[in-house]
Amino acid sequence: xxxxxxxxxxxxxxxxxxxxxxxxxxxxxxxxxxxxxxxxxxxxxxxxxxxxxxxxxxxxxxxxxxxxxxxxxxxxxxxxxxxxxxxxxxxxxxxxxxxxxxxxxxxxxxxxxxxxxxxxxxxxxxxxxxxxxxxxxxxxxxxxxxxxxxxxxxxxxxxxxxxxxxxxxxxxxxxxxxxxxxxxxxxxxxxxxxxxxxxxxxxxxxxxxxxxxxxxxxxxxxxxxxxxxxxxxxxxxxxxxxxxxxxxxxxxxxxxx
Length: 257
What we know:
- Helix content is 65%, strand content 16%.
- It has helices at 2-33, 41-55, 94-102, 111-117, 151-221, 224-256, and strands at 60-67, 72-79, 82-90, 106-108, 128-134, 137-143.
- A hairpin with a 2-residue loop joins strand 5 and strand 6 (137-143).
């Protein structure tokens, strides 16, 4: 009976832990759904930090945005205020590269292991680091204790990494939407320009038709010394008529587009 009670107690604690994790993840997702542009990253990162610290005993958290092609990455401290202290690094630390290429966590359990593998200096006092990959890099958490993170902590961080993927997808969707809206605005603007051009061309065409007709009539009875001037005026009117035709073609092309 004692064993049965202990088993029941473990299962209850496990269920309660799962509920806390899911609630934390959902609160971060709620912030992601409120995203409208890149400026909202601060709010998402702050929520991420607050919820993760409730579930995992850690001393520091960093988002590493990795560019494998350029062999470089940027690190952002994740704090209660959001993202801080952007740092750029040339060369990717082997544990980060392994995590990105394999899709599996990379865990350095001691200071010796950290100093053997990391190319860049780690903060003094850090004794263990866990990197979990997401679509753009890794989430790194560290501790001042050796062997600080167990299987539960790794599982929780992997779930938070999936939520971070969702945040990047949300931002990608927002950027595509913004680009589409800009293209629609440009299309409407060009349509308006086409309509304006058509109206202007029609009005100019009427004016030119009257001018050219009167010039041709005047040329029939004009003295020889005036003909030269009338001819120049007629040629200029014909050039203007050519411009009007181009405007009309432009307006039709825009309407078709």
